[in-house]
Amino acid sequence: xxxxxxxxxxxxxxxxxxxxxxxxxxxxxxxxxxxxxxxxxxxxxxxxxxxxxxxxxxxxxxxxxxxxxxxxxxxxxxxxxxxxxxxxxxxxxxxxxxxxxxxxxxxxxxxxxxxxxxxxxxxxxxxxxxxxxxxxxxxxxxxxxxxxxxxxxx
Length: 154
Known about the structure:
6 helices; single chain; 2 domains; mainly alpha
């Protein structure tokens, strides 16, 4: 008897649908907003650095402090987005989280990432390839009583 595919008459042996995969996918998608927040923060800080009446172009130390906060904003934004991609990868690969919304997110995000050369292009190609090769798994409706099916063993 295969432990991953129990008899259909005994519903108590079905594994529960993973809410962890759902939560990780949502958190990963939400963290993709961080670069937008980082860009907005950087623009605000750059404007403040250039319009600061006491230090505009005169005090190099003050300008360096402004640049430091701009670099910090960029690092935080990219770290948040990277962490979000890790959460999304864990949800998709480990928990096999497949829903139509996650398919369309991968397609749209992958297509937009293609334009961010060079790393975004690689990420975009990987996301599009994964989403399009697994399209039936994402778009096939699943019932909550369906048993967990592990990835195929090579």
